[in-house]
Design a protein that fits this description.
CATH superfamily: Gcn5-related N-acetyltransferase (GNAT)
Radius of gyration: 15 Å
Strand order of the largest sheet: 1-2-3-4-6-5
Number of helices: 5
Oligomer: single chain
CATH class: Alpha Beta
Order of helices and strands: HHEEEHEHEEH
Shape: globular
CATH topology: Aminopeptidase
CATH architecture: 3-Layer(aba) Sandwich
Helix content: 25-40%
Number of domains: 1
Distance between the termini: 33 Å
Number of strands: 6
Length: 171
């Protein structure tokens, strides 16, 4: 990914997620050097960025940290086509986080992922705040593809994501 792409991806990330769920720009840019982190981009014929998926390869599983579609294009099928194509080539189980708060938007988001084959689990945690109000709680549940998440699988994932991505050893 070139510098110009990073700026566009970061801008899309900032307008798509609460500030607490987005790293400061310099930290986000630095993680591009991590060999376990990849950003997949969907572009149109004019080479404009339509959507992106940011993944972490955690060895036995893939964690999708961010997935967003350009605001003006949401609801047009770009996101579902991109995610379906991504999942069709995924060689490992995929885990995503979704808000554990009952709102219309969170229910629609969960339904979107379920239509793609994800399973909503009962397991979750509070995500560490990336920036902003550090006292704020970000309760999340896990969704997995292609199979439901077991208790052992959740514990393994939680340990990996907190130590390797959030850089927290005690959870």
């Amino acid at each position: 990914m070139n510098e110009k792409d990073f700026e566009k991806i970061y801008a899309l990330m900032e307008c798509s997620f609460p500030i607490e769920e987005v790293r400061p720009q310099e930290n986000a840019k630095a993680q591009l050097r991590d060999p376990h982190y990849t950003i997949w981009i969907s572009r149109n014929e004019a080479d404009l960025i339509l959507a992106f998926i940011a993944e972490w390869d955690l060895g036995s599983i893939i964690f999708l940290e961010h997935f967003a579609v350009e605001q003006t294009l949401r609801g047009g099928g770009i996101g579902s086509r991109m995610m379906a194509a991504y999942l069709s080539q995924a060689a490992k189980p995929v885990v995503i986080e979704v808000e554990d708060v009952k709102t219309e938007i969170s229910e629609r988001r969960i339904g979107f992922y379920q239509r793609l084959g994800f399973h909503l689990s009962e397991y979750g945690y509070d995500q560490p705040v990336m920036r902003g109000d550090i006292s704020k709680k970000i309760p999340l549940k896990m969704m997995t593809y292609p199979d439901p998440l077991s208790a052992e699988g959740f514990e393994h994932f939680r340990q990996q994501v907190f130590s390797q991505i959030y850089k927290i050893t005690k959870t």
